[in-house]
Design brief:
With 335 residues, the protein is mainly alpha-helical. The protein has 17 helices and no strands.
């Protein structure tokens, strides 16, 4: 049985790669060529990406390893690691059948394929650090040995810090964990406890910003002020192009396809409890990208790629439950 399970996983991962490898040769388009050109020129030119330092350093490293014409290898690598983490998390929380279906949906979704190959951060890097933080926190929570708990907790903190070092919008994940913790312990938490947790979250953000500021001594090309100025451009409530928001959101839904959305209609309360953090993440991402920040004049459909992972997880679990209930009904009818 274990051998068959391993073979099934390898087959799903092979399908994942088979659908993406041909896309490695796609020509660059839109902002991709600017990124490729910047990292080819120098570290100083890469600083014009206006993201936290890990984004710039990742693509600079990818240019050295794969070459400027093959930067798509980098997001594909992170996306492949995300597939492994997704499978492991869903298997631990819901079961192997749900994990297989979640990985299958993640592998065949057009939006996921595009995200795996896009030279940016939202489709591959951010989902990886989100899944890594979920996995480390889960292992920390379930581990009994104290030294192992400390190691997994350190991994959790580093995963959160790594995500913020990729893009400031990763702060969504920090909020998600605070909300998830508050909901899970709502009966035991007092107002003072929640204030401590929120204060800890702000302290962590401050620590991350201080680490970025200190990065200029290690990576002098990084422009801390330019990064913050770029982020603040999207904080305003007036002058939004709501038509563009609607059009780009519809475009994202079309890329997601019904197969990642329709199964949510059959999502059960039991599955909601087990996968609640993915529901919170999905809601948080939609609120952030559609309402809090103004991305109406940007490629909003690119930013909404962060919805692929939670939708694949939730829909995979719902489909597994449907198949399991259908099988049970069939057996009962035959008896």
């Amino acid at each position: 049985m274990k051998k068959n399970s391993t073979l099934f996983l390898l087959a799903l991962l092979a399908l994942f790669l088979l659908l993406r490898i041909p896309g490695l040769q796609l020509p660059y388009h839109q902002d991709e060529w600017k990124t490729a050109r910047a990292v080819e020129i120098s570290a100083e030119a890469a600083s014009s990406l206006y993201h936290p330092p890990l984004t710039q350093l990742s693509y600079l490293a990818a240019e050295k390893v794969f070459g400027g014409a093959q930067l798509r290898f980098m997001p594909l690598l992170f996306s492949f690691l995300s597939a492994l983490l997704l499978y492991a998390i869903v298997k631990r929380r819901v079961g192997e059948s749900a994990a297989r279906l979640a990985l299958l949906l993640f592998g065949i979704s057009l939006y996921s394929i595009l995200a795996s190959l896009m030279i940016d951060t939202d489709g591959a890097l951010l989902p990886f650090f989100f899944l890594l933080s979920v996995y480390c926190f889960e292992r920390y929570r379930d581990e009994l040995k104290q030294h192992s708990r400390r190691a997994w907790y350190a991994g959790f903190i580093l995963a959160l810090l790594g995500g913020l070092m990729v893009k400031l919008s990763f702060v969504i994940v920090l909020v998600v964990f605070i909300v998830e913790y508050g909901v899970e312990h709502s009966k035991q938490l007092r107002t003072r406890d929640m204030l401590y947790i929120v204060a800890g979250g702000f302290s962590f953000v401050g620590l991350a910003l201080a680490a970025m500021f200190a990065m200029r001594y290690i990576y002098p090309a990084f422009q801390f002020g330019a990064m913050l100025e770029h982020a603040l451009l999207y904080i305003h409530l007036t002058g939004r192009n709501y038509t563009q928001i609607v059009v780009q959101t519809v475009k994202a839904v079309q890329y997601l396809s019904p197969i990642l959305i329709m199964p949510l209609l059959f999502f059960s309360r039991e599955e909601f409890k087990k996968l609640r953090i993915f529901v919170i993440y999905l809601i948080g991402a939609l609120v952030f990208y559609l309402f809090i920040f103004d991305f109406s004049r940007a490629a909003l459909d690119k930013y909404l790629m962060v919805t692929i992972v939670p939708l694949a997880v939730l829909s995979g679990s719902a489909l597994a439950s449907l198949l399991r209930d259908g099988k049970s009904s069939l057996i009962s009818a035959s008896l």
